[in-house]
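Collaborator request, handled under Task 6.
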Amino acid sequence: MLFFTLSFIFEILFNIIYILLILLSVAFTTLAERKLMGSLQRRIGPNVTGIFGLLQPIADGLKLLLKEMIIPKNVNVLLFLFAPFLVLVLSLYIWFFLPITKQLHSDVNLGILYILMVGVLEIYGILLAGWSSNSKYALLGGLRSTAQMISYEISLSFIILGIIFLVGSFNLNDIILYQINNDLWLIFPLLPFSIIFLVSILAETNRAPFDLPEAEAEIVAGYNVEYSGFLFALFFLGEYSNMLFLSCLFTIFFLGGGSLVTLIGLPYTLIFAFKSLLVLFFFIWIRATLPRYRYDQLMSLGWKVFLPLTFGYLTFLISYLYIFNLFPINLLF
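Structure tokens returned to the collaborator:
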């Protein structure tokens, strides 16, 4: 009984530390983005708060905590307060299915399905935020964001389905092991999928050039226009947490996780983090380079370009596996 109690306490403490480390990573991701954006645009970036501006994320967090939280009149207070917490909790909960290290890793047989399920639920948080704000601008922003995320979810689902057919498992660890055992990252045989996945996760996280829900010049900041202070910070943390998570997910799907450990002897987690940071750099580089798409261009890209391409390549992949009898044993039907 005592052993069970102690193990339960240690598990709770580990989960708390894990979440705090994610939040700390999110905070310093904002600093890295501002520094890189400054460098790419020939500006200095944050350099006043702390040495080289390293305390800027902490200052930003304190500022948002101390600012007044304004709740507009005639809003649905319960849903208005619940929406940002829902977005943040789901964006943090999804990290528990990610195999970041070899020792402390998630080994869920249906891990991909859990990730898809939690990712879809986040849409409800954005939709509730727009609807409960009692503002036409927020409602339009919520609807546009929902339509955008649903549109690109379909292409992402086809890509993930192709990986499942190729590997024969819904387990993220099996996807990494498949790439290690075959000495081949999936970015090479699934190059079209990897490119579409990389662009689609920009739209999924509302990042430039697909940041239409937050286009200040068009719709007054979108679904979160009525939020301020701490509540706005929750949306902010959720967005950057998703950006980090999808960078890690791309590393697992197409870059073999930390599989370079077998070649150069570096720790698995270090290799995994390096690959994920390269994908994260792509997020920031694109933001500093490309102008914002129009909404019709955004939807046209998702429905008229990515959807046919992913469905066509998925059909080709399944046909290839079937003709050459390469289907994994547990997926034969």
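The cover message to the collaborator said: "The radius of gyration is 21 Å. The chain has a mean pLDDT of 86. Please let us know whether this matches your experimental observations."
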